[in-house]
Write a structure and sequence with these properties.
This protein is mainly alpha-helical. It is built from 14 helices and no strands. α1 packs across α6, α4 runs antiparallel to α13 and α5 crosses α11.
Length: about 375
């Protein structure tokens, strides 16, 4: 009994640790832009969508031999074409995520030190990059292991932030209104912040003989981040109001005081940095072992492509995670649904369930491309 509970808790921790990343820092800003009512409608509808798709992928995982990952699943059920499309979406979503971490982590570092060290924001982005790339190059997996324990640290710090901020909350800052401006804005970031499908096969393997609990593990693993995200969103929006920025924790000094705002920014920096290194190591390993690339070349692709895009002008955090969420995770969602159809033999009942889901992802991809090209 104790072993079963331990496996379930560990599986949940792995999935929750994967889901909680940099995306939720954008939520207070997004809620302030579109109105809290619009944000909540998107949040719960997309939360339901992500939950259903992840449970479908859980079914696929249970029907697929162990020790395969996302692209391996696609090759098994959809052939080489499916594998190539899936690999494309995974690689570019990971590179885009590294860019997002670079943008936000650099901003947090700038927020901590710029008052007394000075310097432009890009200098702090370069410092963030140098340290992160160094850890990735030397393969320091100790910091990536911190990501697992870091989930408990995140809970603690978020709890402290919420408790500390509570006396400063102004409910007038949280306007329960429908704002038609940027009505599509929440779609990509929310999808990005709630997505954790890539680690479902790992969760299944962790469960071992208790695989029957995979569906419940997925449900709990998505519910926990949703609760945390809502608490964070209402807290920061309630404190900062119209002054809230896309990175969430910045611009809180006037409301919370210099000392606590620096602690909050350090929490943000630490969260992004450990994830940046862990994600970079994962992608580097994929290039080395799956695509047989030289280690130095793999490291160069992983580290310098996000930096290159940053200096080419892709510095808008919201736009980056919107693009990743709507397009690359949209593609991944469609591939999961197609795999599920193969596993379930695409009966009429299965098609009725899955076709609307595919339409949502397709619409999101088309809209994001049109928005990007404007």
């Amino acid at each position: 009994m104790q072993d079963k509970i331990k496996k379930i808790i560990y599986a949940i921790s792995v999935l929750v640790g994967t889901i909680i990343g940099v995306g939720f820092f954008s939520f207070p800003y997004i809620a302030g832009q579109v109105g809290i009512k619009t944000f909540l409608i998107y949040f719960f509808l997309l939360g339901g969508l992500v939950l259903v798709v992840h449970i479908l992928f859980g079914e696929v995982s249970l029907a697929t031999p162990d020790y395969l990952r996302f692209s391996g699943f696609a090759k098994t059920h959809l052939g080489k074409t499916g594998e190539k499309i899936t690999s494309f979406s995974i690689i570019f979503s990971l590179l885009g995520s590294l860019l997002a971490y670079l943008i936000v982590g650099g901003k947090f570092l700038w927020g901590i030190f710029s008052n007394f060290l000075g310097g432009e924001e890009y200098i702090y982005v370069l410092l963030y990059f140098i340290f992160g790339a160094g850890f990735i190059y030397f393969g320091m997996r100790a910091i990536s292991k911190l990501e697992f324990f870091g989930i408990y640290f995140i809970f603690l710090i978020l709890f402290l932030i919420i408790i500390y901020c509570f006396p400063f909350l102004k409910f007038s800052n949280i306007k329960i209104a429908l704002n038609s401006k940027d009505i599509f804005l929440p779609y990509g970031p929310i999808l990005y912040a709630l997505w954790g499908a890539s680690l479902i096969p790992d969760a299944e393997e962790i469960l071992g003989k208790e695989k029957k609990y995979l569906g419940k593990v997925i449900f709990i693993s998505i519910l926990i981040p949703m609760i945390i995200y809502l608490l964070f969103t209402f807290t920061i929006l309630g404190v900062a109001g119209k002054n809230v920025v896309p990175e969430g924790l910045l611009n809180l000094e006037n409301a919370l005081g210099k000392e606590f705002s620096k602690i909050a920014l350090f929490f943000g920096f630490l969260t992004t940095f450990t994830s940046f290194v862990a994600l970079g190591l994962t992608l580097e390993k994929m290039f080395v072992y799956d695509y047989k690339l030289n280690k130095n070349l793999s490291w160069g692709i992983v580290c310098f492509i996000p930096l290159l895009f940053y200096f080419l002008g892709f510095k808008n955090f919201i736009e980056v995670i919107s693009f990743i969420g709507a397009i690359f995770l949209g593609i991944s969602g469609i591939m999961i649904i197609l795999m599920y159809q193969k596993v379930k033999k695409a009966t009429l009942k299965v098609k009725i369930l899955t076709f609307p889901l595919i339409l949502i992802f397709v619409f999101g991809i088309i809209y994001q491309i049109i928005y990007f090209l404007k």
